Structure formats: structure tokens, C-alpha cells
């Protein structure tokens, strides 16, 4: 297939400031299509994030499965707004999925390494489909929660394998953009779910929630079909000993001749050999030389969740209702935040490889901080500590929604995409699959935590909840500034150089490496 653009892959300075290492390669149609389709694995994750908040704000759904919340919400109009939806079992409905995803991402680590990235994606799609069907036909809460658990298994498999797949396929110059398509597809999934909820809530007869939950089957079918037809990554082929096929695949996706892929191919084989020598990737992760990767694989996803983004993503409709919006207005506001989230992700798709990861992280952090505090102040002024509000003028609600949107857009071009991209590109092959599982499971653990405690925290901390998250946003921005080196344009198998050149992490790097990459010891 013809190349899209005829530029050479980005090079970078060798570890000693010496030779410029370069892999020739172009952004070919074949790599573009594979990465974009592969990244669509995020759809199932996103659909799920967006669907539960709307469904749990639908009266017929609450009445059927959570009658106590329904009564509290419908009948007791005088209840403190902050505590309206505070129910453990309702929370469990949303959060059970993330616990399941946590467990399955650990299993997926083995599958991704042993059988390849595509197999994990396929398994993810199929299990997810089973969950969607269970949920659509749920007649009791058990079916509902089991369905969520199946969905969670699917999400765990997909989030473990998709970012690795894309990072390995993409030429390093475009890795950021292509990987961010994963986040873009998460945001598309969220938006579609919000729109679906908006319409299904209006279905006469009150069974719209079944359509919302069953609709998850559509992205599941899509991602399963995609995983079926996608090619394997060259890294994965080499790991499985299919050397010749890997070579051919590399030529195809880089759009260059056999002799031109020699350098990259040799590096991949060397990385694979180093990886093969590692019998216990999990145990290896504890080695001193992997300390920076280990720290990042834990802190980046944890901090991503501590931005508080999922308070908006899961509970936007509930949150807006608590703020005194009507049912329809709440679902509509969720559509608006979903749209902003998706559109702003394009900034990351186009900007990550241009401006670098650090700049986006830091700008996004500062913007989130400012607007989170603004939301806290606005809510405090109207709702105070009692949570009772008699009149909320429309202009006031609009300002609150606008501030939330500006906060969401900052997340959408910083911590959202980079929270997935950066971990997936910093792990050397020998620990990649295990480390990615850590990233996913930490992400899911904190997603679970935020989902679990949000409604009670809103009830207890009131507007202070937004201040609570903003403290973390401040800490994480400083953390990035001090500890995350720039990874833009560095070939994935040569990432070691960035740690070697970092003021803090260099002390963890061994003086000499036994791995020769492209003739340059890194
Ligand atoms: C996060 C999700 C979040 C979503 C919002 C993702 O990167 O992992 O937890 O809901 O972004 O767009």
C-alpha cells in the first residue's frame, strides 16, 4: 500500500549525545488502519463509563432494582441535595465492573504475552458481549451485577492489550497520535452512551434502560470483529518465534524495503531475546533498574483517577440532578460534557507528538485545578453546607456546566490520553505485558474507589469534594514536572535513554547494559 506521508521516523540523540538513531519508516495506510481500528477497543470501556450514570438516574430502573433509592429520590423532596443518591448498592452497580476489570487485566497479561495482543482483544470483546446481553435481559439485581462483572472482564482484557498493540504497531514519530485514538474511542463511547441515555429515558413504558444496557453489545461486536481481522504486531510475532512473518509485517507497516527495516528488526529481536531470558516478568518488575517504570505504572493511573474525572463521567446526570437540574436537563448536560470530552481529545491526538507529553500534562493540570476550585466555590455559594437550595437561576447553572466543561476539556487533552499513552510506551518488552497489567489494574482500582466513595463523599464533604480532588491535581502536576522525562519521538525499545538522562532516575540505571540496540549500547 502507498505511504501516506513520506517522512522519516524521528530520530533522537544517543545516550551519550552521540549518534542519531533512526528507524526508517512512513505512516502507511496499513499501520494507520490497524492502529485506528485496534484503538477502537476503547469503545467498550467508554460506553460503559457513560451508560451507568444515566441509567441510574432513570426512575423506572431505580424503582425496579433500587426501590429504596427510588423512594428517597422521588418522594422525599426535602432531602439534602448532597445526599439524595447516597446508596451502597447503587454504587456497587457502577463500581463492580471496575473490580472485575482489575482482576481480568492481570489474567490478560499472560494471554497478551503468550497468545498475542489480538487474542486478548478478541476475548475482551466476546466476554463484554455476554455481559451486555445479561444486563439487557436482567430481571433481578443479581443478573445486573453479574452482567456488570462480565463487562468488567471484557474491559480489563481490552485495556490491557489495546494500548500495547497500538504502541507496537505505530512508528515512533506518530505513536502519540495513534495511541491517543484509544482515548478518543473511550470518549466516543462515553458520548454515544450519553446520547443513547438521553433518548432511551424518553421511551414510553420505562424499559429504555434495557436498550441502554443492551446497546453495549454493538461496540462489543465491532471490537471482536476488528480483533479477528487485525494483523499481529511484529513484536508479538517475534515473541512467538515467527521471525520471517515479523520481518514481512515490519516492511508492510513501515512501508519500506527489507533492507531498510534491518535496524528496527534487529532491535526488536534483541528486545525479544532479552525478554525471553526473563522468566518472571512480575518478579523482575521489582528490580532496581525498573524502578522508574514501576513507579510510573502505578502513579500515573492512580493520579489519573484522582483528578476526579469520573465523578463527572459516571455521575454527571446524578450530579446535575443534585444541583437542581430537571431529569431531562441533567441528561442533556451529560451529553454536553461528553461532547466536550470527545472534541478536546483531538487536541491531544494532534498535539502529543508535536508539543510533547510534559507540556500537555502540566497545562492540563493547571487548567483542571483552576476550574475545579471554581466549581467548588460556585456550589458552595449556592448550596452552602446544608445542601438545600430553593432557587437556582438558569444563568448560574450554565456557569457551573461551563466550568465543568473547561475542566473536562483539560483532562481530555492531558491526563486522559496520556494516562494511557505514557505507561504503554515506557516499558521494555521484557516487562511490558506485566507492567501494563499493573497500569490497568491500578487504574481500575482507583476508578472503583472513586465510584464507590463518590456518592458518600458528596454527602459528607459536600462542595469540599471538589477541593479534595483539586489537591491531588496540584500534587500530580508537580510530580510530572519533577519526575516524568519527555518520551516524545523516542523509539519504544530504546526508552532507557530517557531515564539515563533524568536527574533523579539516572541513579537507578545500571552503568552498562547487556542489550545492544542498533549497534548503540543504551
Ligand atoms: C479514564 C477513564 C475516564 C475517561 C474519560 C480515561 O482515560 O481512564 O476513567 O472516564 O478517560 O474520558
TrEMBL record:
GO terms for molecular function: monosaccharide transmembrane transporter activity; symporter activity. SUPFAM superfamilies: MFS general substrate transporter (SSF103473). It comes from Vitis rotundifolia. It comes from the Eukaryota. The chain crosses the membrane at residues 27-47, 89-112, 119-139, 178-201, 207-230, 294-318, 330-352, 364-383, 395-422, 434-457, 463-484. Its main location: membrane. InterPro entries: MFS_dom, MFS_STP/MST-like_plant, MFS_sugar_transport-like, MFS_trans_sf, STP/PLT_plant, Sugar/inositol_transpt, Sugar_transporter_CS. Keywords: Membrane, Sugar transport, Symport, Transmembrane, Transmembrane helix, Transport. It is found in: Membrane. Gene3D superfamilies: MFS general substrate transporter like domains. CDD domains: MFS_STP. One of its GO terms (cellular component) is membrane. This is Major facilitator superfamily (MFS) profile domain-containing protein. Residues 34-488 form the Major facilitator superfamily (MFS) profile domain. PANTHER family: SOLUTE CARRIER FAMILY 2, FACILITATED GLUCOSE TRANSPORTER, SUGAR TRANSPORT PROTEIN 12-LIKE. Belongs to the major facilitator superfamily. Sugar transporter (TC 2.A.1.1) family. The lineage of its organism: Eukaryota, Viridiplantae, Streptophyta, Embryophyta, Tracheophyta. It is a multi-pass membrane protein.
